[in-house]
Amino acid sequence: MTLEVVVYNLESALRAQEGGADRIELCDNPGQGGTTPSYGMIEVVRQQISMDVFVMIRPRGGDFLYTSDEFYIMKRDIWQCQKLSVDGVVFGVLTSEGRIDKKRCRELIEKARPLKVTCHRAFDMTRDPLEALEDCIEVGFDRILTSGHQPKAVLGAGLVGELIKKAKGRIAIMPGSGVNEDTVEEVIRKSAADEIHFSAATLKPSGMAYHNNAIAGMGSAEGGEYMVRTVDPERVKMMRKLAMGIIGQQKA
Fold this sequence. Notes:
Elements: E1 2-7, H1 10-18, E2 23-26, H2 39-48, E3 52-56, H3 68-83, E4 88-91, H4 102-112, E5 116-119, H5 129-139, E6 143-146, H6 153-167, E7 172-175, H7 184-191, E8 195-198, E9 201-205, E10 227-231, H8 233-251
């Protein structure tokens, strides 16, 4: 069982490693589902993390239909990730009709090599998941992160399992979105996945002694300026234990 933890800062990456994760997906902007982190963040995380580091390549939140300028930004970000010696990149590009943009994805994958490449949950916004599966295989993705075309992976676990069967080992399928201690056993049982993607997130109080109570929030999360998002290593360990328990039952 491979455990991938999504992280949004250095401390989270360190705590994920402490908890025994196998890989991290490094992002910015959790409120928008993840965008590309800064080069400084990528560099320092790479220096301090020994496990695999995959970096989100997404120039903005919103849809996955990109302008020529945005597509150029993605190519430049991939180039920077290669210079910083990460292990993989994560992206997805769609057409306006809701299909995998095979031309652009193939171009990005070719530029990314020899890094590993994951198609992120843009996959869940496609019109036909089985068609998108074959398109991802055709253009050369190594892995698909998916919630099974549902808001949470536990609801789409049946489709995730179908995708794994259809893939027949040609590409890895990794369920993610809402995978936690309450849902991981059901997700694995229904999908037979051998990789999972989750956050194990927790909040800790900021070290700020002074609070300006006149300001309720500087972003999308009210009061978030006095909290710091991190990862609970004990939650990572528990996810491993629960996942391996289900695998043991399936093999028995």
